[in-house]
Amino acid sequence: MFTITAQDRHGIIHEGRVRKLTPRECLRLQGFTDSQIDTIFSLGFADGRIYKMAGNCVTVPVVKEIGKKIKAVNEKYRIVE
């Protein structure tokens, strides 16, 4: 999937037409779970605000994997005093 930003408009082809991604779809692409998404919707944010939040966040699964790599390298080259 391409980068989701707060100012771009993204869509997918559905039944031969381009349709806008829903706020839920944008949040899922960013790695949020359905329970986290339900919490966001329960807070009463407007769709425009949710699109902006999705566009401004980092993708959680990607950051998690980067953290694992950093930890592995740190453990490999740890200096023992």
Structural description of this entry:
The protein has 81 residues and is mainly α. It has one domain (11-76). The chain has helices at residues 23-29, 34-42, 47-56, 60-76, and strands spanning 11-14, 17-20. Strands 1-2 form a two-stranded antiparallel sheet. It is elongated and about 60 Å long.
As laid out across the biggest beta sheet, the strand order is 1-2
Strand content: 5-15%
Largest sheet: 2 strands, antiparallel
State the shape. elongated
Q: Give the oligomeric state.
A: single chain
Radius of gyration: 17 Å
Main features:
single chain, 81 residues, mainly alpha, two-stranded antiparallel sheet, 4 helices, 2 strands
Chain-wise SSE layout:
Blueprint (H helix, E strand, L loop, with lengths): L10 E4 L2 E4 L2 H7 L4 H9 L4 H10 L3 H17 L5
Antiparallel strand pairs: 1-2
Short description, anyone?
53% of the residues lie in helices and 10% in strands. By secondary structure, the chain is mainly α.
